[in-house]
Design brief:
The complex is a heterotetramer. By secondary structure, chain A is mainly alpha-helical. Helix content of chain A is 70%, strand content 0%. Chain A is built from 11 helices and no strands. The longest helix of chain A is centred in the middle third of the chain and has 32 residues, at 114-145. Chain B has 6 helices and no strands. In chain B, helix 1 (2-25) runs antiparallel to helix 2 (29-49) and helix 2 (29-49) runs antiparallel to helix 3 (53-77). The longest helix of chain B is centred in the middle third of the chain and has 25 residues, at 53-77. Chain B is globular, with a radius of gyration of 21 Å. By secondary structure, chain C is of the alpha/beta class. In chain C, helix 13 (467-486) packs antiparallel against helix 17 (542-563). Classes of the chains: A mainly alpha, B mainly alpha, C alpha/beta, D mainly alpha. Chains in contact: A-B, A-C, A-D, B-C, B-D, C-D. At the A-D interface, helix 3, helix 4, helix 5, helix 9 and helix 11 of A face helix 1, strand 1, helix 2 and helix 3 of D.
């Protein structure tokens, strides 16, 4: 029963992400726009490129949607509203989200188009930049919670949220999460002005609808992950748990979508340089500082 | 209960083997790299089926990134990565068939005749496994933990020395 | 009714889908966003969401009249759109390869809004139709030619074996009538190619009949347009197919001995567009790199037993490949960044030879029409001025002023001080509008969404603003420039990209960013009286060009403030004067020079020279060995206008 | 104990089913029409028919090699993080040595020019 409820909430969340994204780009609140856009895409032809690798081309959008959805199964919206509370929760999110890369490599290599292929391999370079900045902050969060159970992680933030306990970890994780969801300024793989749509350029019709649905679910899943790890999940004074979860998730989603509008796209060379020469040392420092903090003030 | 678990384990085992076969039957480098990736994922799913959750999830995660990096290196250095030329890349067929059979027989013999000790009645739950692994890492097999660090370091230094051309100091 | 409707009766589900499509229109803009903004159109405000790929678009928006080459490219875009697709045409009527327009409207924001309203109705009713015809156009067809994987210059129209190495030739598709293709076209290819295309589409990977699909050596199989069958034998260099001699010898570029070859494509080597000679092979000759590191990468082939045809190990496959900057012999592919690429100036065809995502070679040419100033008859002053201002939609007023001044110079008429001041105000307003248009395109190129929207909205306001409105808009400009100075990542995104050396070819802001001050305004008495001093920087990279243009915007504001009046230039009444005259006007992209001769009041000869023509030659050296993002940004920072390029 | 994993597998199969239903619904509105030039990859107005499956020259292979090593390290960090609070200072020192060794590798790579666009 909770599974159906959570899937429904995820669908509503993805819908709101679409509405907020349209608002950030066009400045107008159009609540019915996503549903009409979805139906319109359903009615359009879906073209398969001629010498494409048919298996890759078909599997990529589905794998993107599955990867985002499976990552959301271990995220608690309220103390009892979680699909599967796995013992390796935090690690499982990371394991599911890696298949976003596999899906984009397939979407890049599949259609045999120059823009898509460059977009696909660029995302692999992007993964090499952000992957460490997701894993190490999560390790620091698990250190404080003494377990990988996401419900335990949220419970461990009862007295002080992780954003205050380990702010450096939050900043690194937030930047890496935006890079994972290839949101601007990290939209190297679907760069509209450098690759004319990149990996999603060759998709049309219903396959494009599934690809975009996968991306929306990915954004809402990453926002929920940020809330669970750093913003104390459902905890908060006065309001009921589900209200706090909803507010925090939507706030983080809006922040993720707005941050991209005010920055030019980052160069791939700069992204790799920054993440490896600045990001990883900071992440190691974060682990060390959190280690000391836990000893001094548990 | 055992029969459902056995069914899933054998299902994922067969999936792993089938993907492994695809690795060698396909002409496209990219397909063979991702087939190997999904073969490892099926292997990870097998571990999860055998109630070794941490090991399975770790296998699924790490193999995905590492096989993708193998994919880019395969596409960079192997001829005709798209498999358009339908070249037959297999070689030493007779030798490999013999080696395959010998290995299979060896594995079966070890699996059947070796003494695996008493069948464990119950398996600690997943969270307990991680904790035991952590304590093991910091306790008895501390030495293995640190030597693993050293081997990773040697791997990094070797990779750096071999793959990347050192910066020439005389440059501007 | 929509020409590009989908097959099917307008039943329940299709009715719903058609209504949804009518509400959510996604458009692909031809020729481009900068032209739409130049004509004062705000497409997003009109209710159409612009997309980067034709696959995602439901409407093809054609703005203004475009040249035949651009119409062919628009037909390709239309063919690649998914049905149901509609064609909304503003301000032009003859679109030869494209089907008849579904909705035509006049070229203004009002016309655009009307057109979109009609389009929504047309979609709601006509998105699905019982019988639908295919869209077919000559340039969409394919002609199969056979080429040898190891020797790309060997090109034949029928299957066979390569005269040089005996390998079986492989089919390769070439567009049936490329823009500069050869005259003869055998008809049997036509239907055979259809068969080939359909068949290859059904089972894409299985080899078509006994031919292998194209082997992987794309880098060598450059787009060699096949040419008439010559008879004589000629000698060419394996590494530089463009080096051709009638007698044996060694290649001037890399010293390899030339190989004899049946004269297949004697003219193919003439065209410079794919000439790789200037591509820097320097690193290959004196590469003192030790190959130790590189050999490990090669697959060890000692144990390889030979397959059916002579199996070549990677060593001899990549033996004669050009090496990239890190010493690896990789495959290069030719990728067109076509005339309608979002972020690049529309109408510019940039074909990059990509080594991974690094540019190994490039060729840029404009597909915009090369407008002849005077057809064959002399022109009245008014029609000559109109013709010159229509030539360049991005800066029409500057060229209008150029024509007027040249005619007045030829007729020896002096303009009054007030008229001169009004003209200065008009030119400076046009400079602000043009620079804002460039900022919008540059923001799109950098993926900087806020800058695209803000600069575009300011540009639309400035286009027809009078003096008071401009003064009212001044704070907006100041806040825009201040915000750009403070944007994080902007400096690191532009510093050091597209660095240019001092060169007398440079004009306008591109020259001033390198420190050359050849501003036509500094010698103009009217400007010096207003206290004009040219701005210049010296780092010469994309950041310097951005800063020079921002400074010029505020400087032009100050100049308009000083002149106090804005009137578009009107051609003076030159009666029936005769004589030769010339004029030099600093257009937003640089000094344009016009020479003309009058004969009793009619323009007889005219000779125009524009800055973008010179800047086009800069591109090759500018983006050599740059990453793709930096290369496109460097091309964008030059602010080229393909419309004013004179071939 | 295994129902949780079964649920995950069920979710995967369910999502695939949902997507296939969407495809069937889309197919109900009409078939994709084969037209000349329609299925050629879109490159801004030019028909580029040559296959692009060539040996792609990625410039980040220096970073990729170091990434493999750091990926291995991460496998050790998760169990350590779970038991860190129990074990206390010794765990910090152990992991400190482990991370220092790896940081040494990173610095060596950095100095040898691995961490740049080759």
């Amino acid at each position: 029963m909770t599974t159906a409820l959570i899937l429904l909430l995820l669908a509503v969340g993805a819908y709101l992400v679409a509405v907020i994204e349209a608002w950030t780009t066009s400045g107008r609140w159009r609540l019915t726009a996503p549903i009409t856009a979805g139906i319109a895409l359903l009615g359009r032809e879906s073209i398969v490129p001629r010498k494409s690798d048919r298996v890759f081309f078909e599997v990529a959008p589905v794998l993107l949607l599955i990867s985002a959805l499976i990552a959301a199964t271990v995220l608690p919206l309220t103390p009892d509203l979680i699909i599967t509370d796995l013992a390796t929760g935090a690690l499982f999110i990371n394991a599911a989200l890696v298949y976003v890369l596999v899906a984009l490599l397939m979407a890049g290599w599949g259609p045999d188009g120059a823009y898509a292929m460059i977009g696909g391999w660029r995302f692999l370079g992007q993964l090499i930049a952000y992957a460490m900045l997701i894993v190490m902050p999560v390790t620091a969060v698990a250190m404080r919670a003494e377990s990988l159970l996401t419900t335990q992680i949220v419970a461990s933030q009862a007295d002080l949220w992780n954003i205050l306990y380990q702010p450096l970890g939050f900043v690194l994780f937030f930047v890496a999460a935006m890079a994972l969801a290839f949101l601007p300024p990290f939209d190297l793989t679907t760069a509209n002005s450098e690759l004319a749509g990149g990996v999603e350029a060759e998709y049309s019709g219903v396959r494009l609808a599934v690809f975009r649905l996968g991306r929306l679910v990915l954004v809402i899943t990453l926002a929920t992950t940020t809330v669970v790890f750093y913003l104390g999940g459902w905890q908060g004074p006065w309001l009921p748990p589900w209200a706090w979860s909803a507010i925090k998730i939507l706030a983080v989603t809006a922040l993720m979508l707005l941050a991209g509008r005010a920055l030019p796209r980052i160069r791939e060379a700069d992204l790799l340089n920054l993440c490896w020469k600045l990001g990883i040392p900071l992440a190691l420092l974060n682990i060390f500082v959190v280690g000391l903090l836990i000893l001094v003030w548990p | 209960m055992i029969s459902v678990q056995l069914f899933f384990i054998s299902f994922f085992g067969l999936a792993a083997v089938w993907f492994a076969v695809v690795v060698f039957r396909t002409h496209s480098m990219m397909r063979s790299a991702l087939a190997l990736l999904f073969s490892q994922t099926a292997l990870g799913a097998m571990f999860i089926g055998m109630q070794a959750e941490f090991l399975g999830v770790l296998q699924i995660m790490m193999m995905a990134t590492e096989m993708s990096i193998m994919a880019i290196f395969m596409v960079m250095f192997m001829m005709d990565p798209g498999g358009l030329g339908k070249m037959d890349m297999t070689h030493q067929k007779r030798l490999s068939v013999i080696a395959g059979l010998v290995a299979f027989v060896a594995v079966v013999v070890v699996a059947v005749f070796a003494d695996w000790g008493p069948l464990a009645s119950s398996v600690p739950d997943a969270a307990q496994q991680i904790e035991d692994l952590g304590l093991e890492l910091l306790g008895r097999s501390m030495l293995i933990f640190e030597t693993a660090g050293l081997t990773i370091l040697t791997a990094m230094i070797a990779a750096t020395a071999v793959a990347v051309e050192p910066i020439k100091r005389n440059r501007d | 009714m929509i020409v590009g409707a989908r097959q099917g009766k307008l039943s329940g589900l299709r009715q719903l889908v058609a209504k949804a499509m009518a509400r959510e229109l996604t458009g692909f803009l031809v020729p481009g966003l900068d032209i739409a903004h130049a004509w004062g159109l705000d497409v997003e405000a009109a209710g159409v969401r612009l997309v980067a790929s034709p696959r995602h678009a439901s409407v093809l928006l054609v703005v203004g009249d475009i040249s035949p080459a651009l119409r062919n490219a628009a037909a390709v875009i239309y063919a690649q759109m998914a049905r149901p697709r509609a064609l909304l045409v503003l301000g032009t009527d003859d679109l030869s390869p494209l089907p008849s327009a579904d909705v035509t409207a006049e070229l203004s924001q009002h016309g655009l809004i009307d057109g979109i309203a009609q389009l929504r109705i047309a979609f709601a009713e006509g998105a699905f139709r019982p019988e639908v015809a295919d869209f077919d156009a000559p340039m969409l067809h394919v002609r199969v030619e056979y080429t040898c994987p190891m020797h790309p210059e060997v090109v034949q129209d029928e299957p066979g074996s390569c005269p040089k190495c005996g390998m079986t030739l492989e089919p390769r598709e070439v567009s049936a009538n490329d823009v500069d293709t050869h005259p003869h076209e055998t008809h049997d290819h036509h239907n055979e190619s259809h068969g080939h295309q359909h068949e290859s589409h059904d089972h894409p990977h299985e080899a078509h009949g006994h031919h292998h699909e194209t082997h992987s050596h794309q880098h060598q199989a450059h787009e060699h347009q096949p040419v008439d069958q010559g008879a004589s034998v000629e000698y060419t260099c394996p590494m530089h197919p463009e080096v051709v001699q009638d007698e044996p010898g060694s290649c001037p570029k890399c010293g390899m001995t030339l190989e004899p070859r049946k004269a297949q494509n004697s003219q193919a080597h003439a065209h410079a567009s794919l000439d790789h000679s200037e591509m820097d092979h320097g690193d290959m000759d004196h590469s003192e790199m030790d190959h130790g590191g590189m050999d490990h990468g090669e697959m060890d082939h000692s144990g390889m037993d030979h397959g059916d045809h002579a199996f070549m190990s990677m060593i001899d496959v990549t033996k004669d490949l050009p090496r990239s900057s890190d010493g690896l012999p990789m495959d290069w592919i030719d990728v067109p960044f076509g005339p309608f690429f979002p972020g690049l100036p529309s109408g510019l065809l940039l074909t990059l030879t990509l080594d991974g995502d690094t540019v190994a070679g490039s060729s840029a040419r404009t597909l915009a029409e090369n407008v002849a100033l005077l057809h064959h008859s002399a022109l009245e002053p008014h029609s000559f001025v109109a013709r010159l201002s229509n030539l360049e939609p991005l800066a029409p007023l500057a060229y209008r002023l150029l024509a007027c001044q040249a005619m007045e110079n030829a007729a020896g008429i002096k303009t009054t001080a007030v008229a001169a001041h009004g003209r200065v105000g008009a030119l400076e307003r046009e400079r602000i509008t043009s620079h804002l248009g460039w900022l919008a395109l540059f923001g799109q190129q950098m993926g900087f969404d806020w800058l695209l929207r803000r600069a575009a909205s300011l540009q639309l306001k400035f286009q027809h603003a009078n003096y008071q409105q401009i003064m009212a808009l001044k704070p907006d400009i100041v806040s825009l420039i201040k915000r750009l100075r403070r944007t994080p990542l902007l400096k690191s995104r532009n510093a050091g990209i597209g660095r240019l050396a001092q060169d007398n070819v440079l004009r306008g802001p591109v020259a001033r960013a390198v420190g050359i001050n050849n501003d036509a305004r500094s010698t103009n008495p009217v400007y010096t009286s207003l206290g004009f001093k040219a701005i210049s920087r010296d780092s010469g990279d994309s950041l310097a060009r951005l800063q020079v243009r921002l400074d010029e915007i505020s400087q032009s504001l100050a100049l308009i403030d000083a002149t106090g009046a804005i009137e578009p230039p009107e051609p003076a009444n030159i009666g029936s004067a005769t004589g030769a005259g010339e004029a030099l006007v600093e257009t937003p992209r640089g000094a344009a020079h016009l020479q003309l001769t009058l004969e009793n009041g009619r323009v007889v000869t005219a000779q125009l020279e524009t800055p973008s023509t010179r800047h086009l030659t800069l591109i090759d050296a500018l983006i050599e060995q740059q990453s793709l993002g930096d290369a496109l940004l460097a091309v964008g920072s030059l602010d080229l206008s393909p419309w004013e390029i004179r071939q | 104990m295994l129902e949780q994993y079964g649920l995950l597998l069920g979710l995967i199969v369910g999502t695939t089913g949902f997507v296939l239903c969407l495809y069937a619904l889309a197919r109900a509105t009409g078939k994709t029409r084969q037209e000349p030039g329609k299925d050629v990859p879109a490159t801004g107005g030019q028909l580029s028919r040559d296959p692009v499956w060539v040996r792609y020259h990625a410039r980040y292979y220096g970073y990729a090699l170091l990434f493999l090593a750091f990926d291995m390290e991460m496998a050790f960090m998760y169990p350590w993080a779970v038991v860190y609070k129990q074990v206390g200072l010794i765990a910090l020192l152990d992991m400190g040595v482990f991370l220092a060794i790896l940081f040494l590798g990173l610095l060596y790579g950095w100095s040898q020019g691995v961490l740049r666009r080759q």
